[in-house]
Amino acid sequence: MIIFIDDNDENTRLDNYLSGMFNDISRSKIQHAIKEGKVKVNDTVKKPSYTLKDGDKVEVENLSEIGILPQNIELDIVYEDENMLVVNKPSGMLTHPTSTERENTLVNALLYKYGDDLSDINGEFRRGIIHRLDRNTSGLLMVAKNNAAHEFLAKQIKNHEVIKKYRAVVKGNYKGDEDRIELPIGRNPKFPHKMAVVPDGRESVTILKVLERLGEVTYVELTLITGRTHQIRVHMSYKHHPVYNDTLYGAKEGKVKTQEQVLQSFYLSFTKPVTGEIIELEIEPDEKITKVLNFYRRKHGKIT
Question: Can you give the pTM of this predicted structure?
Fold first, then answer.
């Protein structure tokens, strides 16, 4: 299996990164496999403590056999042209296969519909994938049909030229109507599968705007200036306003049951490959957001 590292996983130890990916294999076994040469970075054997860099090629042998099965799963395509598409990923769907889950991901669905007409810059198990959404975060996700489009769109993301906005319901009454959250994010030193605000983390900036206050919860719009792994969830948790039902980052299950975090990527603005046209896309609130908002609106007499 070949994995290409992006800037979200830069500065992570090799063994910690693989522990997060292969969570069914102990860290000691992973370290042993690295030392035996079963893991190579840029065709070279490295130490388990090697710090990954953006663009590194990690090749893993004999840890897990990954086969990606094309599956006929319906896709909600919001935008499409000859070079790319934007899908509305549902909550509960992984963006791409992992060592333990190889079916029912967005990539499985994309392979069925597009076959080889997807970029392969990020390796076989991330065909077409330029950026990711967490399993239980729904919303807009760009997909590249070829490597030229992938590089063009990835450069926009890296240069913070793609505008990505999210809706979320967060716990508590958020102080102030607007906020600029600048807190560095890196791997949680105790739990490699989680991220955290850490002194030596990467610069991470989130712009928050309050949309509606509903007593125990606040409905907010969040604009990502940077795009770190779990950025919104980590920032909200650190500010003591975790995303509703985000149990991974400290939220206790709320009165309204949902499939984990109530968070949606609802708006994208980007420059279209080849033509340079500006594309703006926006979708309606998803079922989770609507369900939670309606409950608290009824409770506070805003709807009947």
Answer: 0.83
